[in-house]
Amino acid sequence: MKKISIIIPTYNEEEVIKISYLRVKKVLEELDSYDYEIIFIDDGSKDKTLNILNEIAKENRKVKVISFARNFGHQAAVTAGIKYITGDAIVIIDADLQDPPELIPEMIQLWEQGNEVIYGKRKTRKGESAFKLLSAKMFYKTLNALSDVEIPKDTGDFRLVDRKVVEIINQMPEHNKFLRGLFSWVGFKQYAYEYERKERVAGKTKYPFKKMWKLATDGIISFSTKPLKLVGGLGIITIIISILILIYSLISYVFKLNDLTPGWTSIMVAITLFSGVQLLSIWIISEYISRIYDETRNRPQYIIDKTINI
Questions:
Q1: What separation in angstroms does the CA of 58 have from each of 54, 55, 62, 121, 203?
Q2: Rounded CA gap, 254 and 265, in Å?
Q3: Does the pLDDT of residue 308 top 70, yes or no?
Q4: pLDDT digits over 230-258, tens only?
Q5: Which of 178, 198, 212, 223 is at 20 to 30 A from 141, Cα to Cα?
Q6: For 110-122, what is the mean pLDDT?
């Protein structure tokens, strides 16, 4: 009998975690020909999420819990979960029920047909602000413009993945993992499963602008070196602009085109332009250096406080 492992990262989800568990459990128990396990990763919740998970795990031995020592982030939580799976395939799904667990049986059918990565592609995204929709659209356009690997648009971490693909991901030692990009990068037979994303059942989003920004920078820096090449391009452009400013200054001096203090225009433009380019270049380079520094420290991506049923 094949086994399906469900990975559910959680952070301050006391309002929805019980509902989420019951809906996922109902779906899995209706799959007569499959065994299952549900792995909850508590990402340092400060509410009653972990207490509720403890109670659930006592009632059902197929429920496993990994509790972090503090909040390490969504991608770290999913990374921890896939290291402890025992199933033949995994399903990554959030606890907020925006990605309906009732779609899992259809994804399993697609897996049985030979697809090794079935990723959820959102046709609609209910309950999300115009800003989030616009920022997500711009992110994927920017990422695909810079990256050498095609990252599917309108996708999240909701997906079913074959065990052999998971084992390859587990071998990757990098710290700042952008999992949806890595699952595309490894290749294999992939299938875009379109669905309608629902509103949160309860609670608030755990992805404010700060976390969205970090996820975006992790994705771009992990899958592209083009920003570094962009720095060189900016250097060439500024040299051309400085030459044009020099020509303009000479023409203005010869033909007395303005009454400004000689040299004022060229000095001010040159200072502001080159200062902006230098600061931008330093920022881009520092992002890559910070990732190198993070890798060389070799600190763990997360710290586990305790586990249940593992």
A1: 6, 5, 10, 35, 25
A2: 15
A3: yes
A4: 666 666 677 677 667 667 767 766 766 66
A5: 198
A6: 87
Under 8 Å CB-to-CB from 308, ≥6 apart: which residues? 53, 54, 57, 63, 64, 65, 67
Burial classification of residue 301, based on how many CB atoms lie within 10 Å of its CB (0-12 exposed, 13-18 middle, 19 or more buried):
middle
pLDDT at 7: 93
pLDDT, position 189: 87
Check if the beta carbon of residue 118 is closer than 8 Å to that of residue 107: yes
H helices of 201-258, where?
209-223, 226-255
DSSP 94-123: -TTSSS-GGGHHHHHHHHHTT-SEEEEEEE
102's CB contacts (< 8 A; 6+ apart) are 23, 27
What number of helices (H) and strands (E) belong to the chain? 10, 8
Q: For residue 58, what is the enclosing H or E element?
A: helix 49-59
The span from the CA of 88 to the CA of 5, in Å, is 8
Residues 93 and 7: beta-carbon distance below 8 Å: yes
**Average confidence (pLDDT) over 87-106:** 88
- Classify each residue of 240-269 as buried b or exposed e, where b means 16 or more C-beta atoms within 10 Å of its C-beta: eeeeebeeebeeeeeeeeeeeeeeeebeeb
Q: Tokens at residue 68, please? A: 């972090």
Gap between the Cα atoms of 198 and 127, Å rounded? 7
Distances (CA, A) of 255 to 241, 247, 300: 21, 12, 66
Residue type, 68: F
Residue 169 tokens read as 């991901």
Identify the pLDDT of residue 197. Answer: 76
Sheet architecture: strand order including 89-92: 190-197, 117-125, 155-162, 89-92, 2-10, 34-42, 63-68, 304-308
Close Cβ partners of 124 (under 8 Å, ≥ 6 residues apart) = 196, 197
